[in-house]
């Protein structure tokens, strides 16, 4: 079993490891620094004292943006991403946000399917959005 909780500074190395594994990030520690510097919510899934997934939620005034969501490869398909997404949506509703947006790779059908189950809709396409040249869909959930 895992639990969902707020980020602690001691989670940094686990998050950087997950980010590197999931996204092949060039500098995940810099990304984490930026998320923290801009006051993003970082919500983690923890099992046996280790972070196994996380979601970064940035406040944008009337709306919010999911900057990143990832689960350690050994734990994918076990409902962790779903639980993290549900917590992000719950927090946005509590804060009376009107929308949540996110970007997702066009090739990531599994993630798109998850987001659509929660009511996210494709509202745009971002050409060559990722560093490898792949396009992204811009998805939005109206709350």
UniProtKB/TrEMBL annotation:
Record domain N-acetyltransferase: where: 2-143
Annotated keywords: Transferase
MF terms (GO), sorted A to Z: N-acetyltransferase activity
Pfam families (UniProt xref): Acetyltransf_1
Top-level taxon: Archaea
InterPro entries membership: AcTrfase_RimI/Ard1, Acyl_CoA_acyltransferase, GNAT_dom
SUPFAM superfamilies xref list: Acyl-CoA N-acyltransferases (Nat)
Claim: Transferase is one of the keywords in the record: yes
NCBIfam families according to UniProt: rimI (TIGR01575)
Protein name: Ribosomal-protein-alanine acetyltransferase
């Amino acid at each position: 079993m895992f639990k969902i909780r707020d980020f602690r500074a001691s989670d940094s190395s686990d998050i950087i490891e997950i980010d590197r594994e999931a996204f092949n990030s060039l500098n995940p520690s810099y990304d984490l620094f930026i998320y923290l510097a801009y006051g993003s919510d970082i919500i983690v899934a923890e099992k046996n004292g280790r972070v196994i997934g996380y979601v970064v939620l940035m406040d944008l005034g009337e709306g919010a943006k999911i900057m990143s969501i990832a689960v350690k490869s050994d734990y994918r398909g076990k409902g962790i991403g779903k639980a993290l997404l549900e917590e992000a949506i719950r927090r946005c509703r509590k804060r009376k946000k009107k929308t949540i947006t996110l970007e997702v790779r066009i090739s990531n059908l599994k993630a798109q399917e998850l987001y659509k189950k929660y009511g996210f809709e494709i509202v745009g396409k971002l050409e060559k959005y990722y560093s490898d040249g792949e396009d992204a869909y811009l998805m939005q959930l109206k709350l």
